[in-house]
Design brief:
With 729 residues, this protein is mainly β. It contains three helices and 56 strands.
Length: 729
């Protein structure tokens, strides 16, 4: 009779098995017919170990019945009692060949179970087998939104059942109300936000609800008519300030300037502002026919942090919308508000952080796959999601489950790509499993799935080297095999590009010949760091090409600016090729060349990092969008270069007062400041970039400089950044 006992500790059931053999002597005869020969009954094992099961599930194991003699045996068996059963019947006669018998453990309740199976042979021999197994409580599965999720004990997977249309649901966004399930997705009505001020843009924040921000400048009506805004009436026109340049002539003895709202040519008086300021040089003023400017000054940092002196492995730079600086690194706790007099360490180690909904979104280190949304200044979690807790079936199938990449999809959609070793593999394995989870603004699962493809099934550590999402919230992921063991990982070729909807539904996939790298996206076009073909986000087809690779491209709606060929962010990768001296601009969406900017004699570009910024060149007029990069001159002085994106003309060159350790490896903008990272000694074009390095961070004040509100302002989805088309969330 099977005996059930209360459930003990976790682990495999201990199975006791006894084999009692007949004690009679066997006579060996010389007769060739073997008449009267005596057999001996045996079992292949004297214990079977059933892995634990769940009520309603099954496990199977095999025992082989053997005859050690030379004559057949007739065998009678006792009944097999529940929850054990036989897959096929026990042999009543055993000849010279082994007879395999499969035994099944199929519990219907939790507990530990034990039963004995006895076989008696015609020669008097006897065997006894003790069967035992444990049934554990069925795990709880966290459902995705608009579905119920139950654990199937047979397949040992979480199975989702879509909620009926009209079921009330939590939309995971403070900007939706009266939400109900529609075809498995939570849909709601937009929350109205109106502060009654025509000069503000009323927007809704996915976590914090309605808020108002200054509206974009009102359009002007010509060179001498500027846009104005009245809180009640809205946009209007007013005369541009007298003296605003309005035509082509700009000399001090003759200039086209606005006078009482009309453009007129005038001889400018002494002291008139005839040249706009740059970050390192004050404005020029007329003195007679000459526009005089004071000498340019060298820009010096007002804050610096050397991670090697700290000492900590910090190699990721992130700047919040208010100028707060977060530093983090591979297997390090994030340093919050690092430029403040008293920086604060986050409570848990995190490999990468990025901005989302004005907060820090960080990959934590626990080995069950955790991501946290934290307050920027304190590190206090708003929520934490752990895949191993939400999906026990995934945790059971994997070893060392952790986060590989994060990507913002929308204010209420986040892509979390989890990586794991398959269960049972040694830690040295290069086999990988990947799970794509979409979360909403409050950390609820919208969808969860395993990613499968022949490229991902190869045991060469396939890895997601690029992730990006577009304005619709659709996601794109680029995988390649890994050429080395240990971080940072170098991508091989070919690569696999996968596309998903904002809810995680697969859309298309495409193989590419080049190595995988970071991705950028602008207005329905997808740009791969190591490619020169722009792909259509709708279907992955080729939309156009440029005669170089994109590198760390930046883009406005009208212009695309790739990194200069030959630039890098990797120490030692400069090579012996001629130093790059030109940037090129291409039109969007045609990708036709528009302009070429060339440095001055003796100067060369130093990094593939680019960043878009705005700079107020002309008082009273909207600021111009610039592409920022760095260079050196013939004396090895470090330069910041600003180039107008519209036409490729130079806006300024400023000397930077610091001794470079490497080329600049990260550029970030704060309101009125440029932040730079250099000195990291490991690969910056791998994943994770600059792993285990101790970099140096510096801030250069530049009043008036602002991050550009463009679809792809940089830094190409690099470490700890937005991965999303549009302004940072």
């Amino acid at each position: 009779m099977a005996r059930a006992t209360s459930t003990g500790g976790a682990g495999w059931a201990v199975i006791v098995m006894a084999v009692v053999l007949g004690t009679g002597l066997v006579a060996c005869r010389e007769d060739p017919s073997l008449v009267g020969a005596q057999g001996r009954l045996r079992l292949s094992v004297d214990r079977l170990d059933f892995p634990f099961a769940y009520p309603g599930g099954t496990r199977e194991a095999e025992v082989r019945v053997l005859n050690a003699g030379r004559a057949p045996l007739d065998v009678t068996w006792t009944a097999v009692e529940a929850p054990f059963s036989l897959v096929e019947g026990l042999p009543s006669r055993v000849g010279m060949e082994e007879v395999p018998v499969r035994v099944r453990f199929g519990p219907r309740a939790i507990g530990t179970f034990e039963s004995r199976l006895v076989g008696t042979a015609s020669d008097g021999g006897r065997v006894e087998l003790v069967l035992a197994g444990e049934a554990r409580p069925t795990p709880d599965c966290v459902p995705v939104v608009c579905a119920t999720s139950t654990f199937d004990p047979v397949t040992e997977r979480c199975v989702e059942t879509v909620s009926p249309d009209g079921t009330a649901c939590n939309p995971g966004s403070a900007c939706l109300t009266m939400a109900t399930c529609q075809q498995g997705r939570c849909r709601g009505q937009e929350r109205p936000c109106d502060d009654g001020n025509a000069c503000t843009t009323d927007a809704c924040h996915a976590l914090d609800g309605c808020r108002s921000v200054p509206a974009p400048p009102c359009p002007g009506g010509g060179p001498c008519q500027v846009g104005t805004c009245d809180p009640k009436l809205g946009c209007g026109l007013a005369d541009a300030p007298d003296g605003t340049f309005c035509g082509t002539e700009r000399g001090c003895d003759a200039a086209d300037v606005c006078i009482e709202g009309a453009c007129a040519r005038r001889d400018l008086p002494d002291g008139f502002v005839c040249a706009s300021a740059s970050p390192c040089q004050a404005e020029g003023r007329c003195r007679g026919p000459v526009c005089e400017r004071p000498a340019a000054v060298t820009l010096a940092p007002d804050w610096s942090l050397d991670a090697a002196a700290y000492p900590r492995n910090l190699h990721d730079l992130l700047v919040g919308p208010e100028g707060d600086v977060t530093l983090s690194g591979f297997y390090e706790s994030a340093l919050l508000d690092a430029a403040a007099p008293t920086p604060m360490l986050s409570r848990d180690a995190a490999r990468r952080c990025m901005l989302w909904n004005d907060r820090l979104l960080c990959m934590d280190l626990p080995e069950d796959g955790t991501v946290s949304l934290m307050e920027r200044y304190t590190g206090v979690p708003r929520w934490t999601f752990t895949l191993g807790d939400a999906r026990p079936d995934i945790r059971q199938r994997t070893e060392t489950l952790f986060l590989a990449r994060l990507a913002v999809m929308a204010p209420d959609r986040l892509a979390a790509l989890f990586e794991a070793y398959p269960a049972g593999e040694r830690r040295e394995t290069l086999c990988r499993m990947y799970f794509l989870v979409v979360l909403d603004a409050f950390g609820q699962m919208v969808s969860a799935q395993e990613l499968t493809d022949p490229l991902l099934s190869e045991c060469n550590h396939p890895h997601p080297f690029g992730v990006v999402s577009d304005a619709a919230g659709d996601l794109y992921v680029s995988f390649s095999q890994t050429l080395n063991v240990g971080a940072p990982l170098h991508a091989g070729a070919p690569s696999l590009l996968m596309a998903f909807s904002s809810d995680g539904v697969p859309r298309w996939r495409k193989s590419q010949g080049q190595r995988a790298g970071e991705l950028a996206v602008v207005d329905g076009l997808l740009f791969a760091e190591r490619g020169g073909q722009a792909l259509r986000t709708a279907d992955g087809s080729v939309a156009g090409t440029i005669p170089q690779v994109f590198g760390r491209v930046v883009a406005t709606r009208e212009r695309l600016v790739p990194s200069a060929p030959g630039t890098t962010v990797n120490v030692g990768d400069e090579g012996n090729a001629p130093a790059p001296t030109q940037l090129r601009g291409f039109a969007l969406p045609s990708l036709s060349p528009v302009w070429t900017y060339s440095l001055r004699s003796g100067q060369s570009l130093t990094t593939k990092e680019l960043r878009l910024a705005t700079w107020p060149e002309t008082p009273g007029l909207p600021p111009r969008t610039l592409v920022l990069t760095t260079a050196t001159d013939a004396d090895d002085a470090q330069l910041l270069v600003g180039v107008r994106v519209s036409d490729g003309s130079e806006a300024f060159q400023c000397r930077l007062d610091y001794q470079a350790r490497t080329m600049p490896q990260l550029l970030e903008l704060a309101p009125g400041a440029l932040l730079m990272m250099d000195g990291a000694e490991t690969c910056g074009e791998c994943d994770p970039p600059f792993a285990s390095s101790q970099a140096r961070f510096q801030r250069f004040p530049m009043p008036g400089l602002l991050p550009a509100n463009e679809p792809w302002p940089g830094t190409f989805g690099g470490p700890g950044h937005d991965h999303h088309e549009g302004a940072a969330h």
